[in-house]
């Protein structure tokens, strides 16, 4: 079993249904570099932190790359469309202002798919964590600072974006199991980590509320 490929999803009548989990991403127009340096990435992360609070999202994972970003979240309210439209618009205004540019920054308002079940959720989270290493932006996923992974395994301080309790719940609240899950290459090994998760493992305090 593997995480499904990121493909554009059409109008989904359930797009704003509270309680569902979504993998959301957006790409720069014509695959342009819309996050050109640390300042751009820091700005997008700050805007994401603000939008998570404003839209009342439960953020489970995220990663900010150079041509795109990914977010894994669960809705408390019907705020997916309004939240990401506002989030992208705010970044586009910043980008055009900083680089004296005009026109669209993203190739679409946002793209998404509904995430179903614990395994699917963890596979998406793992996919996001490994994005920087696959793009040769770092040697270890925990070294990349514009991702939720480092904080979730305790390498960085909590970033105020991800709800760590919710993100680690499928693995019994264990940071170590989450690290093992991300590092495991065999899908069967990852599935066993879910099935044998320690129910006694203490859950970390939530960092998003």
Tell me what the structure shows.
The chain has 209 residues and is α+β, with helices and mostly antiparallel strands. The chain is built from 7 helices and 4 strands; from the N terminus they run E-H-E-E-H-E-H-H-H-H-H. Helices cover 39% and strands 13% of the residues. Strand 2 (57-64) and strand 3 (68-75) form a beta hairpin. The protein has one domain (21-195): Transposase IS200-like (Alpha-Beta Plaits, 2-Layer Sandwich), CATH 3.30.70. The protein has a 4-stranded antiparallel beta sheet with strand order 2-3-1-4, with helices on both faces. Helix 1 (38-55) runs antiparallel to helix 2. It has helices at 38-55, 80-98, 117-134, 149-152, 164-168, 175-183, 187-195, and strands spanning 21-27, 57-64, 68-75, 111-115.
Summary tags:
alpha+beta, 13% strand, Alpha-Beta Plaits, 209 residues
List the helices and strands and how they pair.
Elements lengths: L20 E7 L10 H18 L1 E8 L3 E8 L4 H19 L12 E5 L1 H18 L14 H4 L11 H5 L6 H9 L3 H9 L14
Antiparallel strand pairs: 1-3, 1-4, 2-3
Helix pairs in contact: 1-2
């Amino acid at each position: 079993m593997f995480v499904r490929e990121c493909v554009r999803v059409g109008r989904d009548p359930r797009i704003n249904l509270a309680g569902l989990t979504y993998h959301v991403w957006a790409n720069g127009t014509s695959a342009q570099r819309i996050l050109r340096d640390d300042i751009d990435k820091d700005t997008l992360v700050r805007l994401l932190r603000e939008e998570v609070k404003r839209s009342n999202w439960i953020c489970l994972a995220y990663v900010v790359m150079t041509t795109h970003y990914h977010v894994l979240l669960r809705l408390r309210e019907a705020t997916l469309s309004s939240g990401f439209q506002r989030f992208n618009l705010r970044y586009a205004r910043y980008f055009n202002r900083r680089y004296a540019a005009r026109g669209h920054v993203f190739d679409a308002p946002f793209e998404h798919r509904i995430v179903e079940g614990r395994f699917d959720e963890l596979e998406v989270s793992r996919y996001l964590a490994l994005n920087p290493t696959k793009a040769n932006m770092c040697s270890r996923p925990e070294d990349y600072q514009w991702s939720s992974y480092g904080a979730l395994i305790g390498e960085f301080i909590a970033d105020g974006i991800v709800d760590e309790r919710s993100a680690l719940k499928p693995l019994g609240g264990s940071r170590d199991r989450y690290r093992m899950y991300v590092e495991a290459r065999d899908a069967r090994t990852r599935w066993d980590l879910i099935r044998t998760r320690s129910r006694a493992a203490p859950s970390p305090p939530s960092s998003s509320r």
